[in-house]
């Protein structure tokens, strides 16, 4: 019984404390509410005061802005007037300058035209004289090439004198390959191969062998003979088995029919072009 009374006593004490805490909390909340209300009222008063001040500042700024706009407008009108006057004066000055320049230009154009006509006459005469000289030189070159060809043909030295010197520049020009090795009048006598190759040009960089055979006349089986030479070359020079072989038939001159036959058989035709320089006559017509 004493224990129960003690527990009830403690419970009452705790409830009293709890009630005290609750009353204290309510009092603090009421105080906080008053402080918040007062702070809110203070903020409202500050806002109203600021609104009045900003309204007054806006009014004063508007007046100042109007005054500035008026001054700017007046200054702008003055500047526009000065610009118009300056432009009118400049227009008059430039009109006078244009007139004077036009007169000067007409004089210069006249002088230039007279100078150009005189130069045209002089250059026309020079072109005429140069064309005559060029024709004479070309004729001399063609005549010299014909005579040189005839002499080489009689002496049997066409390969050494004409075809061989032209080989490297012609091949490098058209095939874009460096010719590292060139052999002339190559005799082969081994095993069952007995033949002679006029010109063998080798491009290591392009892995290509240019086999050039020289003919002075085109009778009989000249195409078949060239293909036989290719087969003999493959047997005589096995070190070039992986190289592309390009057949070329060379001569001092070729008629159109011969060139067409070579083109049909994918053989390049090398000869003088109008007796002026050695050239490949059917390069653009053959596609490998």
What does this entry look like structurally?
There is one protein chain. This protein is of the alpha/beta class and 288 residues long. It has two domains: 1-109; 157-285, 3-Layer(aba) Sandwich (Trna Endonuclease, Chain: A, domain 1), CATH 3.40.1350. Helix content is 68%, strand content 16%. The protein has four helices and six strands. The chain has helices at residues 2-155, 158-175, 222-236, 256-264; strands spanning 181-190, 193-203, 208-214, 244-250, 268-273, 277-280. It has a six-stranded mixed beta sheet, sandwiched between helices. Strand 1 (181-190) and strand 2 form a beta hairpin. Helix 1 runs antiparallel to helix 2. The longest helix is centred in the first third of the chain and has 154 residues, at 2-155. It starts with a helix and ends in an 8-residue tail after the last strand. 12% of the residues are buried. The model is unreliable at 148-156 (pLDDT under 50).
